[in-house]
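To the wet lab folks,

You asked to see what we're planning to order before we commit. Fair enough. Below is the target structure as tokens, and below that is the sequence we designed to fit it. If anything looks off to you, flag it before the synthesis order goes out.
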């Protein structure tokens, strides 16, 4: 199981991971346990600062220097459409919550983009 998420953010591709230490910090900053925090995020009851913190702490947990992570979020997450931030933040949370799907786990039908065939394969 992969607990990291890799995605393009700002100026390049980065690895994001909410390690135990990063979750502890997220809980401290949000004054909320990870379960309640996750529910708040998936139910779209989040604060803008939540999204930015998920991304910043995910960068640090993924190996980015904390100063660089702050610089990246200051430059590329602040004053950015929420619609751009939310999917990335949720992918980072989901990777830790249930493990990220490795690309080799994707079915052949899903790779082709044929949604009907992919759903049929998943139902089998």
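Sequence we intend to order:
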């Amino acid at each position: 199981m992969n607990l990291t998420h890799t995605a393009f953010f700002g100026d390049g591709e980065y690895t994001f991971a909410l390690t135990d230490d990063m979750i502890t910090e997220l809980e401290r900053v949000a004054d909320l346990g990870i379960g309640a925090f996750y529910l708040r995020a998936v139910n779209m009851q989040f604060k803008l600062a939540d999204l930015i913190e998920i991304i910043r702490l995910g960068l640090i947990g993924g190996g980015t220097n904390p100063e660089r992570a702050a610089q990246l979020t200051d430059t590329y997450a602040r004053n950015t459409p929420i619609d751009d931030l939310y999917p990335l933040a949720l992918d980072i949370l989901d990777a830790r919550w249930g493990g990220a799907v490795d690309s080799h786990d994707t079915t052949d039908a899903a790779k082709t983009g044929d949604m009907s065939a992919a759903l049929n394969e998943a139902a089998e």
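Structural context that might help your review: The chain has a mean pLDDT of 88. The CA atoms of residues 5 and 92 lie 6 Å apart.

Thanks,
Computational group
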